Amino acid sequence: MHRRLIYVALILLAILHQDFWFWDDATLVLGFLPIGLAYHSAYCIVAAGVWYLATKFAWPDPNSEGEDMPQ
Amino acid sequence: MTQLIVICIYLLALLSIGWLAKGFFRGTAEDYFLASHSIGPVMLLMSIFGTTMTAFALVGATGESYRLGIGVFGMLASSSALVHTAVFFFVGIKLWAIGKRLGYLTQIQYFRNRFESDTVGLMLFPILVGLVIPYLLTGLLGAGGVVSALTVGALPDVFSASGGAVPAWATNLVICSVVLIYVSIGGLRGAAWANTFQTIVFLMTGVVATVLISNELGGVQAATQAVLDTHPEKLIRGDAVSQFGFLAYALIPLSVGVFPHVFQHWLTARSAQTFKLTIIGHPLFIALLWTPCVLIGVWATSAVMGDGSLVVPIDHPPNTELGIMVQKLTTPLMGGLLGAGILAAIMSSLDSQFLAISSIFTNDIVGHYVSREQVSDEQLVRLGRLFVVLIVGVTYGLSLLEPRSVFALGIWCFSGFTALFPLVVASLYWRGVTSAGAIASIVTSAVVWFLLFRDSDYAAIAGYQFLGMMPVVTMIACSIIALVGVSLVTPPPSDATIDKFFPEAGH
């Protein structure tokens, strides 16, 4: 169930990348950051959050998890 | 002159790291090429990030945002936050597990066994090496552009023809030599250590450069306001980037799944757990690196000196925007430190690429076709080093020809790798993919890539499109059609191979 939710979140993230709503918007965030750039910078941070959840709840290969290489 | 001294000290520090890593060398090819799978989470994050972010990120992103505006960030940075990480998550960990279980050193070994075909390996070898060459070239062009912009007037007696600036040929010669030396003596462990150091340096560089440059321009708000007044189109995407073009650009980061040097870094991981920090940290580092670079590129369109002249002249040479901004708007000492940071981004990719080329030549050509009784580990490593010197020589020669935009050349190189990405995914997730399908996909990708590259006058035509789309769309579509079409009508792989790569199949 968790795994499916993570996949849905990733698909949503992919859709949110195409931000046509800010395409021609020249609003400045904090007086210097164009909103199109601010949005995509924030997007990276949100992506990191989703990937964190993915490592928690949708780890792809649980069988190999934690198996250290022989030194 | 100060800039040059700082850069020289930095290069010496890198050589020292290679020397230190040599002390840990265990004398085996596996240790030289994969650091004996000993790399932990922090170093894996740093080394993979340092490897994937090159001149393309710092020099190319600044130059392209100077030309196109802020859209560059969404086209390649935030898309990479999603796509790179997805590739690490769905492809990298799986390949690491297979590589660990079956003892692979290179991706060609994997493909050769997965498709039960030496032909696949023989075809991939020249294609992968051939695609790494333009990638190496982006690094050298970026380094040459940055250092020549930073050192204007530094050595007027030595380099009078270039106004005292260190010319690109000299920079490239020094950069290639330094990287070759520390990779040769330190192997992948040396490269991973150097990359960790260099990633810290260039991440700080972006932030520090933004603060210093914006201070000179009257603060961040004044710097952006100047753009709003003179080039407002740079603060939006508008007509500079089409909606479909923006979407198509998201295919480019898929190339990370085919880079031989990234594959090699994946295999260095100590365990699957080691990947977790990379998966979470990679998108954050992308934001930290690209946001300042894109801002500087946009500011460069409108920044003026005290006398009213443009900081970056309209007729500046390609790949020099960042170097010019740093040289004109910071002190010589900071210019040197920032220059070292920019070179750090470039060299942290060159080292892994040199090593990957060495590894695939040594293991996939010499090691595979010459009996191991005839060649020792030591001789293998030496042969690999010689091959790298040859490839670096070719790349160096190409860097002396007419310079291309780092960004344009990078896009062509990444597009070629992206065309091979369906092959990687199919090999991991589709049991029915056949060796004939793989060969058809490789041939199709190579032929389509070359025809389109030639049609673009070898990356000289800026913004080249085919059928109104980025060439990568055509490349990946043709690659998929060949892969699926031929696989469906040719005999499937043997049960033994299926059992080997899909143990859960349980034949």
What brief labels describe this structure?
heterodimer, A: 71 residues, mainly alpha, 2 helices, disordered C terminus, B: 507 residues, 72% helix, globular
Write up what this structure looks like.
The complex is a heterodimer of chains A (71) and B (507). Chain A has helices at residues 2-16, 35-57; strands spanning 28-29, 33-34. With 71 residues, chain A is mainly α. A two-stranded antiparallel sheet of chain A has the order 1-2. In chain A, a hairpin with a 3-residue loop joins strand 1 and strand 2. The model of chain A is unreliable at 64-71 (pLDDT under 50). In chain B, helix 1 runs parallel beside helix 14 (332-369) and helix 4 (55-68) crosses helix 14 (332-369). Chain B is globular and about 75 Å long. Chain B has 20 helices and no strands. At the A-B interface, helix 1, strand 2 and helix 2 of A face helix 5, helix 9, helix 10 and helix 12 of B.
Radius of gyration of chain A: 17 Å
Helix content of chain A: 40-55%
CA-based shape of chain B? globular
Mean pLDDT across all amino acids of chain B: 84
- The number of helical runs of chain B is 20
How confident is the prediction overall: mean pLDDT of chain A?
Answer: 85
Q: What spatial form of chain A do the alpha-carbon principal axes imply? A: elongated
Order of helices and strands of chain B: HHHHHHHHHHHHHHHHHHHH
β-strand amount of chain B: under 5%
Low-pLDDT runs of chain B: none
Proportion of residues in extended strands of chain A? 5-15%
Q: Identify the most extensive interface between protein chains.
A: A-B, 40 and 53 residues
- Order of strands, widest sheet of chain A: 1-2
Q: What is the makeup of the main sheet of chain A? A: 2 strands, antiparallel
Head-to-tail CA distance between termini of chain B: 69 Å
Number of helices of chain A: 2
Along the chain, the helix and strand elements of chain A come as: HEEH
Unreliable spans of chain A: 64-71
Number of strands of chain A: 2
- Secondary-structure class of chain A: mainly alpha
Question: What is the helix content of chain B?
Answer: over 70%
